[in-house]
Amino acid sequence: MGPPLADQSVFWKGERLEHAVLRAHGPNPDADLGFLLGGRFREAVPLTDKFGRQITDLRVSVTDRCNFRCVYCRSANPETQRPADELLEWEEYERLVRLLVGMGIRKVRVTGGEPLVRPGVERFLARLAALGVQDLSMTTNGYLLAARLDALVAAGMNRINISLDSLDREKFERITRTKTFEQVIAGIDRAQASKLRPVKVNAVLVRGINDDEVEAFASFARDRDLIMRFIEFMPLDQDHAWTRDMVVTGREVYGRIQALWPLEPIPHGRSETARKYRFADGRGEIGLISPVSEPFCGHCSRLRLTADGKLRTCLFSKEDHDLRSLLRDGASDGEISEEILAIVAQKERGHPINEPGFVPPSRTMVSIGG
Ligand code: SAM
Q1: In angstroms, what is the span from residue 25 Cα to ligand 1's centroid?
Q2: Among 51, 137, 198, 365, whose CB has the most other CB atoms within 10 angstroms?
């Protein structure tokens, strides 16, 4: 458990939470926060951190396993994986998401590892939809997608992001260390032909590996009328090979595409990670996600729940917060909600990638959930 909430700077509508509680309920020495959270006040408490950012988005990693070994994420060397009993059960995820939805989470993105390798993910999505999650999405490498798409849509998934880091089959095989190019393209096409259109396709650009494909990716978006998103490589790879000169900035990508096909900005929500543009002359969009060169932490609205039940307030957090023990030690809903509020109060102002002496976090993207 964290320290008592009264010692935390938790804000609600710009007011310290304990003041808001007092205003709503009057001074009541018996009304500890657990009690209030268990009652009607919980419905009214949005998750807001000490910088006034409202937390509305949750990434849920349903597995630390992945059937790809992308060079910018995992190692070619064998890794130790967490024993199955360390991973949350579906019911445990569901309980946490239910509490978080009650505290203001509106968007849930299911990710991994690779979410489609965990059996039962469709049923899990249906249960999240039944909890009232307004925006339910998934990030996948697309390999298992084509055959599963109808079930995912029927479960209530609204949107999908599919990773594709090269349009060249051989290079794709080198990056992912798999031979799955056709299946991934089939997954993208299948999703694009469904009500999930327009699909978002994510490429992590790494200098010297796939930065020569910026224009080809833009052309892919135009041809298929989809959203091609370019993500800056972050220091979250298992091999710790990241260097700053491997980052291909959003600014560079914008310049190269704009030189060929004029771009028009699309308005974006404050907490959206991508700067979005459409092609002035036709179909397709691009999104530039530039966490290294243009950090967007000031409007961050995200929390991450890892497959082993840890809540993370930032990809680059030095520590994560154990909710699995609370779940398994019999904590009440009120106690878990109180802990979540205390964790959110500790959300970092921003990531430290550009600070002197930056050290990458010990957990890497595949074990956090991207
Ligand atoms: N398996 C799924 C997939 O491939 O999309 C979901 C998990 S993956 C870890 C989620 C996202 O993280 C993907 O878009 C992936 O490209 C991105 N990612 C992984 N390592 C990254 C890194 N070092 N820098 C930036 N993005 C990274």
Answers
A1: 45
A2: 365
234 lines ligand 1 (CB under 6 A): yes
C-alpha–C-alpha distance, residues 156 and 176, integer Å: 29
Query: Which tens digits make up the pLDDT trace of 54-84?
Result: 999 999 999 999 999 999 999 998 887 889 9
What is residue 237's three-state secondary structure? coil
Task: Report the candidate in 31, 40, 33, 29 with the shortest Cα–Cα distance to residue 10.
Answer: 33
Residue 48 tokens, joined: 């807001």
Through-space distance between the first and last CA atoms of the chain, rounded to whole angstroms: 26
Give how far the C-alpha of residue 321 lies from the chain's centroid of Cα atoms, to the nearest Å.
17
Q: Whose CA is nearest to atom 8 of ligand 1?
A: 370
H/E run at residue 28: none
Q: Which residues of 113-123 are buried (b: 16+ CB within 10 A; e: fewer)?
A: bbbbbbeebbe
User: Strands (DSSP E) along 103-240, which ranges?
Assistant: 107-111, 135-140, 159-163, 200-205, 227-232
- Would you say residue 34 has pLDDT above 70? no
pLDDT of 45 above 70 = no
pLDDT band at 4, cuts 50/70/90? very low
Q: What span, in angstroms and rounded, lies between the C-alpha atoms of 305 and 158?
A: 20
In sequence order, the 6+-apart residues with CB closer than 8 A to the CB of 49 are 10, 11, 55, 313, 344, 345, 347
Q: Please give the model's pTM, rounded to 2 decimal places.
A: 0.89
Distance CA 9, CA 196 (A): 40
Cα(274) to centroid(ligand 1), Å: 15
Best residue for ligand 1 mutational test, from 60, 62, 71, 72 (most atoms within 8 Å of Cβ): 72
Cβ pair 17, 42 in contact under 8 A: no
Pull the structure tokens for residue 235: 């220091």
